[in-house]
Amino acid sequence: MDAITLYNTLSRSKEPFKPINEGFVGIYVCGPTVYGDAHLGHAKSYTTFDVVVRYFRYMGYRVRYVQNITDVGHLTDDGDQGEDKLAKQSKLERLEPMEVAEKYTNRYFEDMDKLGLLRPDITPRASGHIPEQIDMIEKLIEQNHAYVANGNVYFDVTSDPGYGQLSGRTLEAAESGTRISAASDKRHPSDFALWKKADDSHIMKWNSPWGIGYPGWHIECSAMSTKYLGNSFDIHGGGLENQFPHHECEIAQSTCAHGNTHEHPFVRYWMHNNMVTLNGQKMGKSLGNAISLRQFYDGSHKLLSRSWEPVVIRYFLLQSHYRSTTDFSEPALLAAEKGYQNLIAIIHQLSVVSSKEKDGEEWPFQDFKKEVLSAMNDDFNTAQAIAILTTHLKKIRSQLAINSAPANLDEIMSFVEVFMKDVLGIWQASDASAKGSKSSQGDELITDLMELIIQLRKNARTEKNWAMSDQIRDRLREKGIQIMDTPEGTKWEFSN
Amino acid sequence: MDAITLYNTLSRSKEPFKPINEGFVGIYVCGPTVYGDAHLGHAKSYTTFDVVVRYFRYMGYRVRYVQNITDVGHLTDDGDQGEDKLAKQSKLERLEPMEVAEKYTNRYFEDMDKLGLLRPDITPRASGHIPEQIDMIEKLIEQNHAYVANGNVYFDVTSDPGYGQLSGRTLEAAESGTRISAASDKRHPSDFALWKKADDSHIMKWNSPWGIGYPGWHIECSAMSTKYLGNSFDIHGGGLENQFPHHECEIAQSTCAHGNTHEHPFVRYWMHNNMVTLNGQKMGKSLGNAISLRQFYDGSHKLLSRSWEPVVIRYFLLQSHYRSTTDFSEPALLAAEKGYQNLIAIIHQLSVVSSKEKDGEEWPFQDFKKEVLSAMNDDFNTAQAIAILTTHLKKIRSQLAINSAPANLDEIMSFVEVFMKDVLGIWQASDASAKGSKSSQGDELITDLMELIIQLRKNARTEKNWAMSDQIRDRLREKGIQIMDTPEGTKWEFSN
Predict the structure, then answer these.
(1) A65: nearest CA in chain B?
(2) Are B382 and B429 in contact (CB under 8 A)?
(3) Fewest beta carbons less than 10 Å away: which of A6, A333, A461, B464?
C-alpha cells in the first residue's frame, strides 16, 4: 500500500506523510468561536478533519486529535480592533459570556454529533488556558519577539525572519497596504496582539504581568497545541480563511518561543480546507449568508424548501474534495441525496444475496480496495473514493442481474461496510438495521407486524382470495414497503 | 401560593427561600470528578438539583445553574495525601490526563442527558480556572489566613473563628482525633492545602507565585462559584459526603477571602442530598460497590438481571426524598417501573377521553394543584408530589369507569403534563407519542401497519372467520399490543 500523501500549504505541494513518532499522529484543528450556531462552512471544515482522523486510524495510526473552543479573545475585526465576539453576543442575549459559550458549545457538539463527527480527544477552551498563554507571552518578551505598550503586548513581526512563510505575505506588501490607525500603539502595522488591556467595561479579563486584560486570539492555539501535542507536531488544520493572519501568527509565536527550526518545525503539515459558497460567495456568519446546520436539519431557513438528513449533508460535503470549494444549492443537495440513497440501496441489495447465488467468478477485490485506498492516500480524495466504490458496486449488481454474484462478495461487502462506517462515517444505524444487524424496539415491532401481515396474506392466497392478497401488497407499497414472493418464501424490504 | 421552603444544612432547619435578588436564583452544585463513569449515587445528586432548578424555573425564577467539572486536584485521599484521581486514571488508561477528563466529561453528559437532566448554564473546569484560584490564594495569604510551606500553601484553620459552622466539627475534636503525619508541613492537622507543590513526575501543573504546582481540591469551588455567581449567592448544593471537609473548607476560604458576614454570607442555603445505599452500605466508586448508569442502561452489571430505562431510574430516585437515603435493589427498581408505567397508563387513558364524555362534575383542580405544589414547596418533596398526583388521577379514572369524566379534565391534564415534563422531567418523548403529538417515522409506520391489520381483521369478521379474527388478536397480544372493539371502532394500544 502506498503511503498517505497530503497537500502541505507550507510547501504548496503534496508530500508523503511521515509522522514524528512512528505510528502516532498529533493533529490540531482550529475549532469554533462559540457565539453562534455552526453553519455549512463549519461542517465542511470539521467533516474534512474528521475523515482525516478516521482515515489515519483506519490505517493503523494512533491519533491524538485536539480541537480548541474559542470562548474569549476572538474579536469582531481581524485587526485587533473591535469587540470580543462572545462578549458582544452575551450583551445581545443578556447572558454572562460563559453562559453564551456553554450554550453554543453544547449546540456545536449536538450538531456535529448528528453529522457523524467523532469527538476530538481533547477540546481545550481558550479561557481555560490563560496561564499557558501568559507563560508563552513572557517567553516571547524575554526573547525580544514581543513588546509591551500601554498594558497591551504585541508580537514584533520584524523580529521574525520567517514571518510570511505560510501565506506568502511579505512585510513590505503589508506595510504598503495597511496604515496603523492613529490610536494604535503598534510599532509595525503587521504586529499583532498577544495580550490586550481590558477596560472596566470589559467582562472577560484576567490578571497578568502587564495588568488586567485578555489574550489575543492567535496565542491560544499556539499555547494549547504545545500543551497537548508538544513543541513540534504533525498536522495543523483549519479553514483556508485561517491561513492569514491566524496561522501565520501561530507559526511566528510558536517558532520564536520554542526555537523551532526547519528540521524541527512547529508543525510539519499545514492542511486547509476550502470554503462553502452560496451563489459563488463565501458562506460565513459575519457575511450574513450562512445557513446553520440546525436550519438544514429542520428546514427552517428561507432558502430551504425542506429539511435535510445530516447524513445527506455529510455525503454532499464528501462528494467534493476538501481543497475545492463546495457550492451549495438545494438541487445539488438533492442530487447528493439521490446518490446516497442509490449507494445504500445497492449495498442493501448486495447484502441480501443468498449464499447459493454467490457462485460467480471472483471480483478483483484487491484491485478494488487498492483503488479506493489510493484515492484516499491521494490527499484524502473522498470524492474519488466514493465514485470508485459506487462504480464497482454498480458493476457487481449488473452482473448479478444477468448472471450471479462473485464468490468473494462477502469479503467485498465487509470492506465496503467498514469503509463506509469507519472512514467516511456515512453508514447510519438505520442503514445497518436494514441488514438486520441491530434494530431498535420499534424496528422489532415492525418486523413482527410484517410477519403477521405476510401470514395473513398467505392465508388469503391459500384461500385463493387474490383480491385481498393484492390489496395487502398495494397498501404496503403505499407505505414504502415492497413485498417479493421468492422461492424461499415472501420477503419484504423498504423500497428505495 | 406558599413560598418555597428548603432545609438549610447550615441552620439545621427548614427555611423559607428568600433570594438575594428578587426573581433570581444563583445555584452552585459540586459536579463530578471526571475519572470514571457516573453511578447511581451521582444520579441521585444531580437529579435532585435538576429538579430544584426546574422547580424554581417553573415558579417563575430566573436561575443561573453552575456545576463544576473537577479535572485536577481531587486526590485519592481526603487528607491532602495520595495521587490526583485524574492522573492516576490516565496512567491506567495510558492517556494524557486531559484525554481522560474529556472522555469522562463526555460520558458524564451523555449519561445525564439520558436521565433527562437539563444541562447546567455554566460547567466550569477546575483546570480552566487556575488564575482565579491563584488570585484567591494570594488574597488569603495577604490576610494571614494562609501560609506557604515548602512550595505548598495551606489554609490556617485557626485563623477562622467560623470554621466548623457547617459540619459542627470543632478544631478541638479534630485535634484529638487526627495526628499530623511526620512528613506534613501543616501547622494544624485540620489545615488544608490550597496549593500543592508538584514534583517532576507530576503531569498536571502550573506556574504560581509559590512555584510549580497545582490547586487543592477545595479552592476550585470557591473560586469558580465566586466568578460566576458573585461573592454571595443563594444556594450551594452537593452530596452529604461533601459537607465535610469539602464544603466546610469552601466556607472558610470564601468567607475569609471576601470578608463575608452573617448578613452577607458566602452562601445563604446549603443543600445536601443523601446517599444511595446497596445492602445498607453507601454506593461509591472508591468503595467498589458502584453500579454505573451505563450498566443500568445496558444491564451489564453482575447485580442486574436486565437493563433499565433511564426514566425508570429517575422515577425511582424521585420516589424518595432527596434527604433520605435511597436503598437500591432490583425489586425496588421493578416496583418503580410498575409505578411509573401505571402512572403513564392512567395519564394516557385520561388523555384519550372524548369531549362528550367530559360532562361530569368539575374536579377540585385548584386544591389538587395546591396539594402537589405544597409538597414541592416543602423542601422539594417529589415523593409526596408524585403520590398526590397519582392518587388524584386514579380517583378521576375510577369515576370515569362508573360515570363520566370531570368537565375540567383538560385543565387538569394540561397541568399534569407540564408538571411531569417541566418539573419532574419524567415525561418522555415516547409517552408524548402515545398522545399522538409527535411521532417518529417508525411510529408512523407502526400506526400504518396496525391500520392495515385492523382492516384485515374487520374483513375476517365480516366473513365470519372468527378463527382468523381471534388469531390476529392473540398474535398482537403476544407482541404487547391490545385490541379493543369499541362503539367507535377498533382501537389499539400498547399493553402495560
Answers:
(1) B99
(2) no
(3) B464
Which of B122, B136, B298, B478 to mutate to test binding with chain A, by most A CBs within 10 Å of its CB? B122
Q: How many residues does chain A have?
A: 496
Q: All 3 cell numbers of residue B431?
A: 409517552
- In A191-266, the DSSP E strands lie at 192-197, 213-215, 233-239
Chain A contact for B120, CB < 8 A? yes
From CA B226, how far away is CA B350, in angstroms rounded? 48
Between CA A263 and CA A279 the distance in angstroms is 43
Would an 8 Å CB–CB cutoff place B456 in contact with chain A? yes
- Per-residue pLDDT reduced to its tens digit, B61-74: 999 999 999 998 78
Torsion of CA A120, A113, A277, A85, to 10 degrees: -70
C-alpha cell at A15: 508530500
Residue B478 has what DSSP assignment? H
Give Cα separations from A258 to A137, A250, B385 (angstroms).
12, 12, 62
pLDDT score for B48: 98
The predicted structure's pLDDT at residue B437? 32
Query: CA–CA separation, B63 vs B84, rounded Å?
Result: 33
Note the pLDDT tens digit of each residue in B117-135. 999 999 999 999 999 999 9
Q: Of all helices (H) and strands (E), which one includes residue A383?
A: helix A382-402
pTM of the shown model:
0.85
For the record, the C-alpha cell of A117 comes out as 463527527
With CA atoms as reference, the chain A residue closest to B212 would be A131
Question: Cβ separation of B128 and A131 shorter than 8 Å?
Answer: no
Nearest to A85 by CA among A100, A66, A99: A100
Q: Is B446's Cβ below 8 Å from some Cβ in A?
A: yes
Q: Identify whether the C-beta of residue B47 lies closer than 8 Å to the C-beta of residue B115.
A: yes
To test the contact with chain A by mutation, choose from B229, B450, B456, B465 the residue with the greatest count of A C-beta atoms within 10 A, namely: B456
Q: Beta strand pairing status for A276-278 and A326-328?
A: parallel
Bridge partners, B483 (sequence order):
B492
Distance separating alpha carbons of residues B111 and B103, to the nearest angstrom: 12
Region of residue A130 (left: phi > 0; alpha: psi -120 to 50; beta: else): alpha
Tell me which chain B residues have a C-beta less than 8 angstroms from the C-beta of A494: none
**How far is A143 from A84, CA to CA, in rounded Å?**
29
User: What's the distance, CA A360 to chain centroid?
Assistant: 40
Residue type, A187: R
The CA distance from B470 to B478, in Å, is 12
B485: nearest Cα among B450, B454, B443, B452: B454
